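Exercise (ungraded).
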Amino acid sequence: MSIYFLLRKLKSSIFYITSPVLWLGVLLCLVLFPKHALSQTEPLSVLSQNWQWKKLLQYNERDVSEVSQREFFISSIGNIDKQAELVAFIEQFTEYPQDVACRYPARYLFIRDKLSLPDVDLSDCQELMDWMRTEQPKAISLVFADGYLKNPASFHGHLFIKIDGAEQQSINLFDNSLNFGAIVPNAEDPISYMVKGLVGGYRARYSAQPFYRHNISYAQEELRNLWHYRLALNQFDTWLLALHLFELRNTDYTYYFMSKNCAYYVARALELVLNQHIVSANDIRVIPSEIVARLMAVDDGAKVQKLYLEKSLQAQFQSRYRQLTKEEERVFGELLATDFTNQSTTVIESLEPLSQQRVLVVLNTYFAFRVRQAPDDDLLKLHQKRVMKKLLSRPLFSLRWQHFEPMLKPHDGQLAALFRLARQNYNHASFGEVTLRPTYYDRLQPAGGRPAHSAMSMAELGISFRDEKIALEKLWLVNISTLNLSNTGIAGDGGWSWGLRFGAERFRLRDFNARLTPFVSGEIGIATRLNDHVIGYALVNGQLHGKMLSNENHSITSQGRLGLEWQWQYGKGICEISQPIAITSTLRKQTLSKLCKLSFWVSKDADIRLSWAEQNERLISAQWSYYF
Amino acid sequence: MKKTLLGLGIISALAMAAPASANDVKINPWKHCGIGATIFDDNPTAAAVSNVIWDLGTTAVTSNTASEDSCASQEIAAAQFIEDNLEQLSTELAAGEGHAVQAFVELTNAEVTTLRTALLDNIDASRNEQAQAIYFAAQ
């Protein structure tokens, strides 16, 4: 760093007025990353093989670039020839240093670190500075948004990158965040959306936004937890990755929902600083929670400095409510039955001022969450306003809320693909069964990074082997269910539990010789937490189906289901009874069905299951599942 | 020299505006920079377009009294933040803490107590009025 350079910048008065810290940050960056005198003689052929140079050009394991835009490269063959791009950069830079450095700042920073290049002040790159939104990137975080079952595109969760402007602070809503997503036309119909998403009918690109936009969408409106994986990077790598993300801003790609999606391209960008590939162009499935697991596996987790959970608005309310004392909880309940006018809320005066504030803050959080769910409910809005008025009218104590986190983190979840071997023992016969499922999870699996008490699977296939015969036992094209239970018992916390499943299945519990029957099944009901480990649920199910048995002619069956689901440290269990009723011109009650299933989580990759079920047939089953 | 020119520019702009009071000289991002629907009360589509323009990172083109520079300033970022986050910001202001309050205070150097007072004074006002009250309290 030359004194001349420093003085030149000090003379730049307009810049000095508008953002003194900005250029100081850039100066600091250049001081911190001095040129390597010895590497000046490093041949370009060697330098072009450097991992970071290859990743700056988005080269993959096939040694070609993933970027197809011509303008991303300086050389016309830069997408297939790393050395040509390196030579072209140096040549162009020699002629137009400022323009080239501003357009390719990450490449500039990298080469300047290796070779003797003249200094360029990146703070003069207006587009870069506008894009960065921070004077100096202090860290980079990978943010995982929990899966969201109300939108098929969000079942698997979401990943994006955040450039952190502060070192200590976990969350700054003004930080820049980089999202990768498909460019979907407005008012696209759901069928086109699904089909095009699966077969590559959309283009996709990175977009930069202040983080608060994501916070509103995910944590506030969709009530999804956000997990911030702050990367353990040195300052050079932090800058290099931030500048690389800037270079990627105008690239676009063909989008495939299952493979070349947000998780894939976010992972590709991160590989720049991981020194290894964490995805492959051959991957047929790339899932956000698996990418965070792969990130955590790099150097045994050493690439993640810190994991911070940003709770959804609902989770915030639940967490705070659970921290109320019994007396505060009682007053909270009594207040909830009032209209929050001054006359009706005198009950709060029985509490100490600090407790009053705790109750009002939890009420305020509760109404904020409820209003987000029902923005047109004027009564909820009125009640929140009155609670806010009470809080705003009083001096506040500093409250200390504990920050409880789920034991299972997104990277702890099991992998999405399933291979299961089962021994099925019916009254009449026994057989082996193989189950295959490309994605994603069922209710008996641990819920790391997935909505708890839910299931979401696609293309789940069961094949039986008996007496040298192979039979298709089931093909569930889609199976989604969620028990949307209230964790607090307060009105509005929780909602309807529901499920949707369609495909084909042999319902052997009704009759061992049941046909393979196509069906569509939907259900709705309620669920409630009975204690810390057990929940109960009641569902009404309706099923439209083909002929299950040769002597039947009904095609609609309804059933009521009552069940318990519980969890312990090493597994999970479900017991349930259901009463099916066949619907034709009359209602015909079928045999009551009972089942219990236990899953023992023997490792992150495997579980052992035991189940018993009985209707007209009895089934006892032992299963071994492997997740990969 | 540039400082002088900038200063002269500001002075002449203020002189042309001929403000009647101190508040009048402040840029109102809702009125001058296309944030929110205030200036398009009868035309929600226009307001939406205005905000889309803003989201794309360019300054609003609807201004008839403010320069592009003034609409690209940090103050406008604060106004846009309030407009987008009013629900979270006001909830947290009532509680006295939270990520939105922290971010906003860091951006504007405003006092939390001042913002709380402005919100309390406008608690029964419309969303737009509340947003603007918080914005001006932070100036």
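Further reading is listed at the end of the chapter. For now, observe: The radius of gyration of chain B is 16 Å. The interface with chain A takes residues 1-3, 6, 55, 57, 77, 81, 84-85, 87-88, 90-91, 93-97, 99-100, 102-103, 106-107, 116-117, 119-120, 123-124 of chain B (CB under 8 Å).
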